[in-house]
Amino acid sequence: MSFSKWIGGALGWSFGGPIGAIIGVALGSIIDAMSNGNGDKFLGEGKRTKRTSYNTTQRPRTQSGDFEVSLLVLASIVIKADGKQDQRELDYVRQQFATMYGKERANHAFLLFKGISKQKVSKRQVCLQIKQMMDHASRLQLIHFLFGIAKADGIVTQDEEHEIHIMAGYLGINVRDYESIKAMFYNSSDNSYKVLEIEKGASVDEIKRAYRKMAKKYHPDRVIHLGEEHQKGAEEKFRQVQEAYEHLQKELKFN
């Protein structure tokens, strides 16, 4: 798969709005770099994806490519949050993309990421576009992935958490959902309660109801439209919900 074929066939609504502008600048730098090579024509191969207007009132179906580019843009913000680009975080992004999409597609993504990471990105504009165009379950998956990047070097710094918190707000993620995902990346005696979005001291019945609710919210089938590669990522959140529930079962001795 050539780079042009990947771009031409993978993306939908993310070609419009602020994200589209960011992609355009990144592609421009790539085209300039490759113009001295074999003359590959970008966007000239592969299945064309009809662009969706950024201002549409009807939310289009988010494609895998749209999610992929959204990850790259937001990841570039998180990685630079503490004033440096840690190689472990970059390796984490590459590894996750290779796991989800395969080595060749991951290489294409990183070629685009290099162009994105050189730009100054408006968190608000980008996140508001994603909020308008992407379903809630997919936005939760974005936040989970961003925390994974931040934790790749062993700790989520205050600056990184601050950036993710701001983006979560722009993405329309409520406080309880945000704290639930955040708790999956910190070690605390109260984490199991936070993951299940309940207060410490909740009754057994409340814990069971919370587990059923969260298992439904984080079920991998909620992002089935993004493709099998993203279901694998969603399985991690689902597993952590199960572990939180099992921890409370053992701690409080109930079945």
From TrEMBL:
Tell me the protein's name. DnaJ like chaperone protein
Matching InterPro entries: DjlA_DnaK_co-chaperone (IPR050817), DjlA_N (IPR007791), DnaJ_domain (IPR001623), J_dom_sf (IPR036869), TerB-like (IPR029024)
Q: Which SUPFAM superfamilies match?
A: Chaperone J-domain, TerB-like
Q: Where are the transmembrane segments?
A: 6-31
Q: Where is this region: Disordered?
A: 42-62
Bias class Polar residues marks the residues at 52-62
- Keyword Transmembrane present in the record's keywords: the answer is yes
Q: Which Pfam families match?
A: DnaJ, TerB
Q: What keywords tag this UniProt record?
A: Membrane, Transmembrane, Transmembrane helix
Q: Which Gene3D superfamilies does this one have?
A: DnaJ domain, TerB-like
The J domain covers which part of the protein? 191-253
